[in-house]
């Protein structure tokens, strides 16, 4: 197992005179903090860029830097004005890292995994892959302990149940002294990347309001139904509030009683289908209904329930985040009206640079958001040509 953080402090202090620990310097990560510059990072050294910079959709403050002496993250007061997601070749230091996916159970997650594995290889980083087996409540800690045994120096991890994170961090930081990038979910005090969920909600809300108005719907005959999932935490579910805000700010306002948040847990089989079917049965009074969801997984279940209802296609709107192959097929087929593209097949071009920066002692945003694009039948070929 890796030495404890207290042993790491002692070893680092002894080696400082030889420049054997801390960051490689460089021009990517800002200046020093109260601690010695040698305390930051894990000793990774970076060279030239090997891939074109990915387009950043959001870089949320505060910024963090990894302090390898204290085995924890610190707020970085000195950092670049903008974040560049540059994948660079490794020129020195231990570049063995771990990637923990939630199960590779859906096209979006599989796209993420393939991208991270591809980009790590491009950068010359050795990658160990772990399966968190969501919704397992034990496998995340098992994976964390395995990462220590395998001597990973940093992690990219996709825990979807935020209630497990305190114990998980106790292992990877307290025992393994390794920085990690959280995927999908913004968490306080640690860096994360994915899509900026409030912006996703705004995209969906503006689409719903504009489309409903263009179709000539009456707000008094319209409902907004949103498939939420409390297991994903408040940072993800924040999108549903910005959906409501965007609709309310438009000239297609809905009464509060016509907005319905239902719970569709990914951890429960066919939850989206069952909850939407129940809602449609209980609310026959609406002539028009707009449906929103976090991701394609739930939206596909919602679409099935809608297809078995008496609602005509012209009287429903369907829009969701976390675009993947299944949602793109639905958009092309006309069964899903809009999908917010997160470009899951490029996630590695964001996550790997963040982890590289942390390991090299540089500062990164608390949340790095991907580019967001509305995919409809009119626009999808601009981004995914040829079907």
TrEMBL record:
<dbReference type="InterPro" id="IPR028082">
    <property type="entry name" value="Peripla_BP_I"/>
</dbReference>
<protein>
    <submittedName>
        <fullName>Ribose transport system substrate-binding protein</fullName>
    </submittedName>
</protein>
<keyword id="KW-0732">Signal</keyword>
<feature type="signal peptide">
    <location>
        <begin position="1"/>
        <end position="26"/>
    </location>
</feature>
């Amino acid at each position: 197992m890796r030495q404890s953080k207290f042993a790491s402090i002692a070893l680092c202090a002894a080696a400082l005179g030889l420049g054997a620990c801390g960051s490689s310097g460089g021009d990517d990560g800002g200046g020093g903090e109260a601690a010695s510059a040698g305390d930051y990072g894990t000793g990774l050294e970076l060279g030239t860029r090997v891939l074109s910079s990915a387009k950043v959709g959001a870089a949320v403050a505060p910024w963090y830097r990894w302090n390898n002496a204290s085995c924890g993250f610190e707020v970085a007061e000195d950092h670049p004005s903008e974040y560049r997601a540059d994948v660079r070749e490794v020129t020195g230091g231990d570049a063995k890292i771990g990637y923990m996916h939630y199960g590779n159970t859906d096209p979006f997650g599989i796209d993420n995994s393939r991208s991270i594995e591809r980009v790590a290889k491009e950068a010359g980083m050795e990658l160990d892959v772990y399966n968190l087996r969501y919704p397992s409540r034990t496998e995340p800690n098992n994976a964390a302990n395995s990462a220590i045994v395998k001597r990973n120096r940093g992690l990219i991890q996709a825990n979807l149940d935020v209630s497990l994170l305190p114990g998980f961090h106790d292992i990877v930081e307290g025992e393994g002294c390794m920085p990690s990038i959280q995927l999908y979910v913004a968490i306080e005090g640690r860096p994360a990347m994915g899509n900026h969920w409030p912006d996703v909600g705004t995209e969906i809300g503006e689409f719903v309001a504009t489309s409903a108005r263009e179709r000539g719907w009456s707000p008094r005959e319209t409902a907004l139904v949103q498939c939420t999932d409390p297991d994903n935490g408040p940072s993800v579910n924040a999108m549903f509030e910005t959906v409501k805000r965007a609709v309310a700010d438009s000239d297609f306002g809905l009464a509060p009683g016509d907005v319905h948040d239902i719970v569709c847990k990914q951890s429960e089989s066919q939850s989206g289908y069952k909850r939407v079917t129940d809602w449609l049965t209980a609310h026959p009074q609406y002539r028009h209904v707009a449906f929103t969801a976090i991701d394609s997984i739930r939206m596909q279940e919602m679409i099935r329930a809608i297809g078995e209802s008496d609602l005509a296609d012209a009287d429903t709107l369907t829009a969701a985040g976390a675009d993947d192959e299944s949602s793109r097929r639905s958009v092309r087929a006309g069964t899903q009206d809009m999908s917010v593209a997160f470009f899951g097949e490029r996630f590695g071009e964001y996550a790997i640079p963040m982890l590289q920066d942390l390991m090299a002692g540089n500062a990164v945003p608390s949340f790095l958001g991907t580019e967001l694009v509305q995919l409809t039948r009119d626009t999808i070929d601009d981004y995914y040509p040829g079907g």
